[in-house]
Batch of 3 targets.
Target 1
Amino acid sequence: MGYEQKILPHYTYDDYVQWEGRWELIDGIPFAMSPAPVPKHQRVSSSLNYELVGAVRRSQCKNCFVYEPLDYKVAEDTIVQPDLLIVCGKINKPFLDFPPVLVVEILSPSTALKDRHAKFGIYESGGVKYYLIVDVDKETIEIYLLTEGKYLLMEKDIKEPVDFSFEDDCSVSVLFNEIWK
């Protein structure tokens, strides 16, 4: 047993649901989701939510829905709360227990490293088809597509509509430059 295993506590979902406030749990280690996001982060999140919901509705995808943060239980000791996500399929538990088709993380100074590294790996290995990293300061969006088990950068600094394919008959087109206005 390594030294770190002797001194670091290891938490699970059963512990997580008892905590007050907003938390994420990655490999048994808790991360507080505070302070609250700054106004620009919230404005971009709201605009992006509006664009994604509109795109899904226009596509008439009957099985896909846009969610704001909810618990995505990846494993007993890993629960994350993406800023936005698109889920195709019914959620039958108080948490999501299967991969969403699209995840959005909006960078903030306190979460950027976690979003770019730990969560990148979690979403990639968990089979999340699209991972979007939004930088509100640079006004860019990195769109990663899962290809043969690895994320490949599709686009960055989007000016034209981007097409996403979720299920056999479900594809959406999103105009991202509207979110910066």
Target 2
Amino acid sequence: MKAKSILFFLLAVAASFFAASYRWGDSAHSIGLIKASGGTARHASVLASGEGTYTLIATAAVIPPYRGDARVVLEGEPRIDHAIYLSGPVVDLGLRRNPKLRDNVIHGLQPRDRIALWVVMKPPMTDPVCGAPYRDGFFGVSHEGRDYVFCCRRCAQAFSLDPERYWNNIGVRGRYQLAFYDTKTNRPVLSVPVEFQGKEKAGDECGDRH
């Protein structure tokens, strides 16, 4: 029984090491500081446009003297459907404080706390030529087993003339921000830049929108 427990522990450690060291294609990790004067992330999180779902892992330490509750908001246009989760221990041994997340607000942050957020994002499909997010009135086209949406005939024509130029531009492109705001002052205490980068920069082909 003891041998099985040791083997299980070693497998868990190996799996954790692999998960921590491997960079998944649809995920990014950002490290930052939560500060009363406004903290920033060490670097922007860059994601390749075109995936259906993304996961952003944001870890942060609370710098004294900040303490309070922080509202977490994913800012940017077009709006991205997302869900925010706060990582916690599987078994709470009481070795450290664990702030709680309710309604996208982290409650009870204190100096020297460390948190880890998981933000699962599902961006809308976009016109691969002009970058417009999908809405009523768009029409779909299939090309080599992949579905695309277009806002107007001119964009669809541009795509048909050079599909290789636009094939990977079905997702949002641009800069977003995972922002943490103190609930009492509404001042930002941490900003995490998030960038979606496509193969080809969106143009301005639209001339006769539906």
Target 3
Amino acid sequence: MRVQVRVMLSSERVIRNETLEIVLPDGATLVDLLERLPLSPTERKKYLREDGRGLKEGMAILINGENVETLGLGPDTPLEDGCRVSLIYLLAGG
């Protein structure tokens, strides 16, 4: 299956506005996707939890526009062919 991924975890990646297409086996989960992301070792350490089962605090994962955490879903959420996954850094300011 093919999954569309937008990685918006840093200002550089937001500026590039790139959408990746990741090919995964049927039945793949969010964890499987995170393992296959083309991130540098530095980016992996900075953005992914040590156990690889999600993003660090202050970041969110959206699947088809829905926040995985808000929906009560977790890293074992199954993905479907054609779904859109966004990895975003939550910004706050005033």
